[in-house]
Design goal:
Elements lengths: L4 E6 L3 H12 L4 E7 L2 H11 L3 E4 L2 E2 L2 E2 H11 L4 E6 L3 H11 L3 E4 L3 H13 L7 H13 L13 H11 L4 H8 L3 H15 L4 H15 L3
Parallel strand pairs: 1-2, 1-3, 3-6, 6-7
Antiparallel strand pairs: 4-5
Helix pairs in contact: 2-3, 7-9, 7-10, 8-9
């Protein structure tokens, strides 16, 4: 019997990890070798379990999925990263690709597509939605696509701060979550306010909360 391909799951929702584990383990040639909720544990397990693919969410306990992808590709370039997230693919797919991901699947339509993504990646391909493929093709041919939104203009770390603000984190909590100094968080907030043309921290919090609510599945 041929050895099964190892898949590591990194998601901060236990029910999602349980569902994915059951889905993947039903495949005769695939197995979930580990399941964790945060980036720190994931980095430790990858070196021990040696998975072929890591399925990772954008939002994680104690860190960002984008940062995890960058860190994994720097240390374990042979490991392929596939994003499974509820976050808007139009905003995050290119960021995930730049970080090193080779697939992006929305949770809202993941039942059949997550296995398709894994199969495609195992065959050496990349897996993205038809919408994203069309957008990327347009940029390749025309050198442009849709005009970027103000949110899209944020850097990865600025977007992470904005997302955490929207989830109700204080700047002190964000400092602890991202493992950066308090002054660094304030610098990120200042740049976000400038890019989004917001007058003060109160407008920033309000805007972040409204945006976070808009990202939630209906």
């Amino acid at each position: 019997m041929l050895p099964k391909t190892k898949i590591l799951l990194v998601d901060d929702h236990p029910l999602v990890r349980e569902w994915l584990t059951n889905l993947i383990n039903e495949e005769p040639d695939l197995e979930v070798c580990g399941s964790v909720s945060n980036a720190r544990e994931a980095l430790g397990l990858i070196g021990t379990l040696l998975p072929r693919i890591v399925v990772v969410d954008i939002s994680l306990d104690g860190g960002s999925g984008l940062e995890l992808i960058k860190n994994v590709k720097a240390v374990h370039p042979q490991v392929d990263m596939v994003v499974l997230s509820m976050h808007d693919e139009m905003l995050y797919t290119e960021r995930a690709m730049r970080a090193g991901a080779v697939g992006y699947v929305m949770k809202c339509d993941a039942t059949d597509k997550v296995l398709a993504a894994i199969r495609t990646v195992l065959q050496g391909g990349r897996y993205f939605s038809n919408t994203i493929n069309a957008t990327l093709a347009q940029k390749l041919v025309q050198g442009t696509g849709d005009q970027p939104t103000a949110i899209a203009a944020l850097s990865d770390r600025e977007l992470e701060v904005f997302q955490l603000l929207g989830r109700g984190y204080s700047t002190r909590q964000i400092s602890e979550q991202m493992n950066v100094g308090f002054k660094t968080v304030h610098a990120y907030c200042a740049r976000i306010k400038e890019k989004l043309n917001l007058a003060n921290i109160h407008e920033l919090f309000f805007h972040a909360i409204r945006w976070h609510e808009s990202q939630q599945p209906r």
